[in-house]
Amino acid sequence: MRSTPVPQSLVFAVHPNVRGFGWIAFEGPFTVYDWGLVFVQSDKNRRCLEHFERLLSHLEPEALVLEAFPEKVRRTARVVTLQRAMAASALNRGVETAHYPRRDVQAVFAPVGARSRHDIAVAVARQVPALTHRLPRKRSAWHGEDRRMALFNAAALAITHFQLDANRLLKELNAP
Q1: Right CATH number for 11-174 from 3.40.50.10490, 1.10.10.10, 3.30.420.10, 1.20.120.530?
Q2: End-to-end alpha-carbon separation of the chain, Å?
Q3: What is the rounded distance in angstroms from the CA atom of residue 6 to the CA atom of residue 72?
Q4: Beta strand pairing status for 63-68 and 11-17?
Q5: Which ranges of the chain does DSSP label H, i.e. alpha helix?
Q6: Which of 18, 10, 21, 9 is nearest to 152 (CA)?
Q7: What angle do CA 170, 171, 176 make, to 5 degrees?
Q8: N or C: which end of the chain has fewer CB within 10 A?
Q9: Annotated domain spans of the chain
Q10: What pLDDT, on a 0 to 100 scale, did the predictor assign at position 37?
Q11: Is-contact 79 17, C-beta < 8 A?
Q12: Among residues 21, 26, 37, 161, which one has the least CA distance to residue 83?
């Protein structure tokens, strides 16, 4: 975490996975404030939630962005429970919480030809050059997902939030 003063309004995106979570805080659509990865070995939900709470206290974001999981989710029950606890914690602090399904993320990145998670991560790295050195290689079908993908998934969620929020504002402005 940075020791510089925290900007007034941050969008804080988090993507939990089986190892911990990736997070990123944006000052605006093209300005990253800070980012990181949290990995835990044991008592994962409790320890992840402790890290998350510290980040919430430090960053004091305006909005929290998470992935919306469908009913028939392919995530472990522990990760779903963790994400729900994160959302509840943010709501208890008065932080606006937005959830976007995977199809919304794919739709935002479709115009640049990004369809897979790796393609989207490459597009994110182009938009946020500070993350380029963290970009994992494209995985083979027999390998598990690189733990750094949680960071790129979080960044993709934040970019989706900015894009869809801008689209909503444009529609409101153009409404009769």
Answers
A1: 3.30.420.10
A2: 45
A3: 38
A4: parallel
A5: 44-59, 77-92, 102-109, 117-127, 149-174
A6: 21
A7: 120
A8: C
A9: 11-174
A10: 94
A11: yes
A12: 21
